[in-house]
Design a protein that fits this description.
about 425 residues, mainly alpha, two-stranded antiparallel ribbon, 19 helices, elongated
Length: about 425
Amino acid sequence: MISDIVNAVSGVFAFLTTPVSWVIVQFHTVYGAIFGPDTGWAWGLSIVSLVVLIRICLIPLFVKQIKSTRNMQLLQPQMKAIQERYKNDKQRQSEEMMKLYKETGTNPLSSCLPILVQSPFFFALYHVLAAIAEGQTKGVINQSLLDSAQKAHIFGAPLAAKFTDSAAEVQAMGASLTDVRVVTAIMIIVMSASQFYTQRQLMTKNVDLTVKTPFMQQQKMLMYVFPLIFLFMGINFPVGVLVYWLTTNVWTMGQQMYVISRNPTPGSKAQAKMLEGLQKHVVEHSATKSKRERNIVKGIVAKGRDRNEYERKFINGLSKAGLAAQADGTVAKGSAAAEELDEDGMPKGAAKRQQPKRQSKSQRQSGASTAKDDSPSSEKTSLEKEDEPQDAKPQSKAKQSGGAKPAGGSQQRSKAKSGQRKGGPQRPKSPSKK
């Protein structure tokens, strides 16, 4: 059933069989002159070269995919806020998500674009190899090229053989069923494993797994779904198609590893590893050697207090080594450069908004009494205290204020101490010594 579906889909892209077969023939002419026209190396490397050519043409699309993935990462906080706000209304949640995608120009399905664009060429190649297995010419492959392709074996398996072929079909191609199934099984397993590793590398090193959003669920689904698809459909693919898809998986894995190491997502584990290596290199040479290094340092400096944990650690590491990152991406050295930084990676002398400290109850009471003493009604009392004898006992202050009645109620309140009783009879006070 699966083979019938694949045949039907490949028939839709039959119009691409001519350009695909033409490219393969051109590469076969080159490799045939080196390894021999009827060898598996000549035909196998021709298919590998077809993959490389297609992937080079798809580099702009891959760059667009990376940018879209970065935009999805930047939208994670907003997406999480929408989920929390409309957690009981899934329809409204989906509407708000789509509105956010539209406003920011982000496509959540962009990660699938390279695979979708490659699919027509994949099925066109399947159409060509299926015709070779049936002994039919297709595209620019004439009878002589057909005979050569049927003789080609890759590790003992014919180019057009499949895992599901019968022993009679395999013998007609000049091979044994055991060789075909061993080779195809190994290629299918490696193909699925490489697909899984590529997606897992993206999930564990270059994204934030703490935020549960539809984008994260999509990426997680791709990590498990695509390897299973290749595993179950691979048994219906000819050896040549398996070579094609294994090559494109290896290319994708290497391309992604390069991008993650050179331009990781901010805040990811990949960025932490990259900045750690950059710090060692800059400290060792006391300078940023390349334009890429200067651009990285320049971007981190421009963020200011918005730096993430790994970027602050990078700036502090330079400071401890007697270096300071400059706005143009260079580093300055010397005692003046070794400035102590705070946890945000900013100079400790920089102005900060200070939060007022909470005062104790005694401090608030003393502050209130000081404010009362500074009022105009307390000026007379202060003058009177200056005329008191110097040998007066300290404990007589409270008693002195209780001798004669003050002229006004405001003076009486200004002389009251926090230790006196509020309301009710007061303790007997000695007459004033004045």
